C-alpha cells in the first residue's frame, strides 16, 4: 500500500467515524481558546476545562488579563502543570496582544508565535480551529499515531511530522485531520497497549500489520 492510499483510507474512515471531530477544550471565543491552549501544554484538557471558568469570569478578555496581578492569576491556575511559567506566559501574551496588535489576537502563525507561551503547535491550533486554516498542529498523540499507522516515515520531530502530513492531506481537511489523530490517539491508539482490536484502521495500519498481526 502506498502512502497516498493509506491517507485516503484514513480519511474515508475518519469521515465516517468522526465527522464532527473538534477540540475538547471548552471555549467561547478566540481569546478563551488561546488561553486554554497555552494552559493545556503538558496538561489534560479535562484539568484545563475545570480551571478556565473561574479564570474567564475574572479575566473575560485581553484587556482585563493584561491588568492582572501575578499572584491573583497564579492562584486561579495553580492546579495546572507549570503554573508559574504559564502565569508569566499569559501575562506576557496579553500585554503583547494589547501593545503590539492593538488588542486583537493575530490570526497568522508567524504573528502568533511571537506571543509568550505560543509555539508553532499552539499557533497551528488557533488558526485551524478558529479560521480553518490548513495548519497541522502536532502534539504527542499526532506524532505517535501518524508514525504508527505509517502516515509519516522516519519523522524525528513535530515539524518533520507536520510537513509530511500536510503533503498528503487535502488542504480543506487539514484543520480536522489534526483532531482525528488526537482523538484516535487519546481513546484508541493509546501510548501503551493500543486498542488494536477496537480500531477500524487495522487493515491499513503499518504497526498492526508488522507487529500485532505477527504476534497472533
Automatic annotation (TrEMBL):
Protein known as: Endonuclease III
Sequence ranges assigned to domain HhH-GPD in this UniProt record: 39-187
Family that this chain belongs to: Belongs to the Nth/MutY family.
GO terms assigned for molecular function: 4 iron, 4 sulfur cluster binding; class I DNA-(apurinic or apyrimidinic site) endonuclease activity; DNA binding; DNA N-glycosylase activity; metal ion binding
Cofactor: [4Fe-4S] cluster
Top EC class, one word: lyase
Keyword Zinc among record annotations: no
Gene designation: nth
A GO biological-process term: base-excision repair, AP site formation
Gene3D superfamilies associated with the record: Helix-hairpin-Helix base-excision DNA repair enzymes (C-terminal), Hypothetical protein, domain 2
Amino acid at each position: 500500500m502506498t502512502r497516498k492510499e493509506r491517507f485516503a483510507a484514513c480519511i474515508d474512515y475518519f469521515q465516517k467515524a468522526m465527522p464532527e471531530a473538534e477540540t475538547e477544550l471548552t471555549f467561547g471565543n478566540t481569546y478563551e481558546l488561546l488561553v486554554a491552549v497555552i494552559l493545556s501544554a503538558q496538561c489534560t484538557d479535562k484539568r484545563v476545562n475545570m480551571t478556565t471558568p473561574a479564570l474567564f469570569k475574572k479575566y473575560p478578555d485581553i484587556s482585563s488579563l493584561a491588568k492582572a496581578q501575578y499572584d491573583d492569576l497564579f492562584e486561579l491556575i495553580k492546579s495546572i502543570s507549570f503554573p508559574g511559567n504559564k502565569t508569566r506566559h499569559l501575562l506576557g501574551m496579553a500585554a503583547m496582544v494589547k501593545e503590539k496588535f492593538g488588542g486583537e489576537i493575530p490570526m497568522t502563525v508567524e504573528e502568533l508565535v511571537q506571543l509568550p507561551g505560543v509555539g508553532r503547535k499552539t499557533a497551528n491550533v488557533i488558526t485551524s480551529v478558529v479560521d480553518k486554516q490548513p495548519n497541522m498542529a502536532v502534539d504527542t498523540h499526532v506524532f505517535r499515531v501518524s508514525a504508527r499507522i505509517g502516515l509519516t516515515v522516519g519523522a524525528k520531530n513535530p515539524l518533520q511530522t507536520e510537513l509530511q502530513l500536510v503533503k498528503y492531506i487535502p488542504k480543506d481537511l487539514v484543520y480536522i485531520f489534526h483532531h482525528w489523530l488526537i482523538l484516535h490517539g487519546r481513546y484508541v491508539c493509546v501510548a501503551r497497549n493500543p486498542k488494536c482490536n477496537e480500531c477500524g484502521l487495522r487493515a491499513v495500519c503499518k504497526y498492526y500489520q508488522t507487529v500485532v498481526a505477527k504476534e497472533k
